[in-house]
Specification:
Length: 280
């Protein structure tokens, strides 16, 4: 009978961010496939876990898969971990999980820390719809092309970036998305020098350029989607209409709002009607 493959999340900094279930699973499986056995050995030591480790990283993943699948088929329960956070999220593991699925081996997630989700949960940007973009290309020309493609994306975007490229990267973002676009900067999450801030891209360029410490450690950028700007426009229009409606009729208020903002009169009228009905 074939065994099970557990995909286990590990901490992204603070070691207490591991789940009871993750520890139980890591203790109970026959073998742990790890991105870097030396890094994971330290984690296992901390939690008194004596399960043997085997390497499964980007460079050997393809060759190793057959061996690991064979072991699973022979009934050896296995856990997959990466150096930090959730495997497969900008980390190795996809090929092993796909091969396990193709071989009818049950794959069981053991969820936990993920830098992208931790950043999104704390920076204060819309979280109802988001896309995970992983790392942008390191070459500037390629990076600018990618950013151009993301420019009109309406969802919040989550990007991982290396500290030595952070300044160049935020400068490029400010150039393509505009200096006014909102950005969440989440650095060293769960660690001693954790920094979580929301500002504009223009402000972030200055913040990172003027404080060299902000160019160190691990960083997640959360970029507000372009719809956020439209939401702000809507907010401004609502504010204006609500004020005008205190003294004017729907028709007069919407005419004046259209004149002042350049928005179509029909749209202003429709919105003024909605606002009056909502306030009735
Ligand atoms: N699998 C991991 C996860 O679930 O988040 C991501 C691994 S990826 C190779 C490493 C990148 O994740 C870092 O360069 C950084 O962008 C982000 N990251 C990981 N830990 C972080 C932390 N504690 N604070 C901020 N960003 C972090």
């Amino acid at each position: 009978m074939s065994a099970q493959l557990f995909v286990v999340s590990t901490p992204i900094g603070h070691l207490d961010d591991i789940t009871y279930r993750a520890i139980d699973v890591l203790k109970s499986v026959k073998i742990i496939a790890a991105e870097d056995t030396r890094t994971s050995a330290q984690l296992l030591k901390h939690f008194n876990i004596n399960t043997p480790l085997t390497a499964c990283h980007d460079h050997n993943e393809s060759n190793k898969i057959d061996q690991l699948i064979e072991r699973l088929k022979n009934g050896e329960d296995m856990a997959l971990i990466s150096d930090a956070g959730t495997p497969l999220i900008s980390d190795p593991g996809f090929k092993l999980v796909r091969a396990a699925q193709e071989n009818d081996i049950r794959v069981i997630p053991v969820p936990g820390a993920c830098a992208a989700i931790a950043a999104l949960s704390a920076v204060g940007l819309p979280s109802d719809r988001f896309s995970f973009e992983g790392f942008l290309p390191s070459k500037q020309s390629q990076r600018l092309l990618n950013l151009e493609k993301l420019k009109d994306e309406t969802q919040t975007m989550i990007i991982y970036e290396a500290p030595h490229r952070i300044l160049e990267c935020v400068k490029d973002m400010a150039q393509v998305f505009g200096a006014d676009r909102s950005v969440g900067f989440a650095r060293e999450i769960t660690k001693t020098f954790e920094t979580i801030k929301k500002m504009t891209l223009g402000e972030l360029v200055d913040f990172v350029a003027n404080d060299h410490n902000q160019q160190k450690g691990e960083i997640v950028l959360v970029i507000g989607g372009s719809v956020e700007e439209k939401d702000m426009e809507q907010e401004k229009l609502d504010k204006l209409l609500l004020r005008l409606l205190q003294d004017l009729s729907v028709k007069a208020a919407s005419q004046l709002a259209a004149d002042l903002t350049g928005i179509k009169k029909k749209i202003a009228y429709q919105r003024a009607l909605e606002l009056t009905q909502a306030n009735d």
